[in-house]
Amino acid sequence: MDIINQSKRINLIIYLSTVLVFFYFSFLAPSTLTEFLLNDNNTAVYSVYARNILEYPINKTYLLMSEIGPDGQNVFNNNNDNEIQRYINHPPLLIWITAFFYKLFGYEIFYGRLVSILSSTLFFLLFMKFLVYLRVNNFKVIIAILLLLSMPIYWTHGLVIEHQPLLNLLLLLTVINFFKY
Question: What predicted TM-score, i.e. pTM, was given to this entire model?
Fold first, then answer.
């Protein structure tokens, strides 16, 4: 019976901590890290890519990250106006999800950042649940969580539209799947 109560307490701590991380990413961090967010250009660039997917036909964007200016022309001055430069160094999943959130909720920067916020929050939740699943002793769990929470890159990438939070979440899901099966 004591094991069940301890398990419930651990789950309660995990879920409350996850809510606090989500609350921090959503409301507190944008006000405390204003200088970092003002110097961030990825959020603006990826927001434009997502908006372009929604506003221009498929034959113009091919659902890729396309450099289309506000006038519908290529932002780079090429001789051929129908030729659009495409940024294909990253897979377009992040842009597709960002475009989906923009379509669903509207063009607000918070909804664009929601992909990274949710990815970082889910990473935190799954990481803690995975440590409990591995039956790691409490001291090691606390050290692992403190190491994660002390990494500035975890906090900063969770606030901008970047590939890293989504990639980290998908990698963690892969590791969990590997350990379970």
Answer: 0.77
